[in-house]
Write a structure and sequence with these properties.
The structure is a single chain. It contains 16 helices and no strands. It is mainly alpha-helical. It has one domain.
């Protein structure tokens, strides 16, 4: 499947057109939601508002990570220089990542998707699994076990700044600036509201963000029709998302993942329009688009034998 099979050259040019205004609006929207969560927890501090704030922040951690991802593709802002600046300092480092290493590794995922060498294969290869297995993963996420491993990897990478190996020291330098960016974020909170609000950012990263990241990974590539087929319709999934799913687990049109793999140069703010065009042109006649993330989770916890019986029943 190629976009050129369904869209004219003019349509492809329009659907890949980058807009500084649309990119800035999406970036600002994500940060406004974060700041709204902080304000809610600060002015009406109680267990319910803390929980709501943690959930909202988890969704925006993912959303800001999506923006880093878009900037890594140089498909968000109109120029490479602006993508690098905002993708690094207003997205990547604030979600405990570094744009350039991430972008280089992510290119391999796109190049190798649909093969056994896909660098992200470990994120989805085990599916489908039993419900008990998924519940164990969710428990590890919500209790911080996954998050602790996430931070341990970051700390080990940072500690390489003291290595005798010059290459390891070079690779560790971006992590130093990442931690310094986090300190600057704490300082900003201290001078505007209160530094304790950073605990919401950190706590959400350790727990709920790990869960929403897992759900995103599952929805994108787990238990697809054929993970070893080069056609994106076979190895990647698009999922429709309602308002709450877009707020919590599917920010910034990340749910249109099949379209992203079909043409990675399409900006996030045009993925929905791209999907609509492809659907109108018949590209998805034999492709299942799940109605919600809940449907996807039910799908990936149906064992192959059970799925076979279901098919026979129909």
């Amino acid at each position: 499947m190629k976009a050129a099979d369904y869209l004219s050259k003019t349509e492809r040019q329009e659907i890949t057109r980058r807009s500084d205004w649309l990119a800035a609006r999406m970036l600002m929207t994500n940060w406004l939601i974060v700041w709204g969560a902080f304000l809610l927890a600060y002015y009406w501090t109680n267990p319910l508002t803390i929980l709501i704030a943690l959930c909202l922040i988890a969704g925006r951690l993912l959303g800001i990570g999506v923006i880093m991802h878009e900037c890594g593709h140089n498909s968000f802002f109109a120029t490479k220089r602006v993508n690098r600046f905002f993708g690094q300092w207003f997205a990547g480092k604030l979600v405990f990542d570094n744009l350039h290493p991430y972008a280089e590794g992510h290119k391999q995922h796109h190049r190798l998707a649909g093969t056994e060498h896909d660098t992200d294969r470990t994120n989805y290869n085990a599916y489908p699994i039993e419900q008990a297995g998924l519940k164990r993963k969710i428990t590890r996420d919500l209790t911080g076990q996954t998050g602790v491993r996430f931070f341990a990897q970051k700390i080990r990478a940072t500690a390489d700044i003291f290595s005798a190996d010059p290459e390891k020291r070079r690779m560790a330098k971006p992590y130093i600036s990442m931690w310094l960016t986090q300190l600057a974020f704490i300082a900003l909170l201290h001078f505007t509201l209160s530094a304790w609000l950073y605990l919401l950012w950190l706590g959400s990263t350790l727990t709920l963000y790990m869960l929403v990241s897992r759900v995103r990974q599952i929805a994108e590539h787990a238990a697809v029709p054929n993970a070893l087929d080069l056609d994106p319709r076979m190895n990647t999934r698009t999922t429709y998302a309602n308002f709450f799913e877009r707020l919590l687990v599917a920010p910034n049109n990340v749910n249109y993942h099949l379209e992203h793999h079909l043409m990675a140069s399409v900006p996030a703010y045009r993925l929905k329009a791209f999907h609509r065009l492809l659907k109108e042109r018949g590209a998805y006649r034999e492709t299942k688009i799940f109605a919600s993330y809940a449907d996807v989770l039910r799908h990936v916890t149906t064992l192959p034998t059970e799925r076979h019986h279901l098919q026979l029943a129909h």
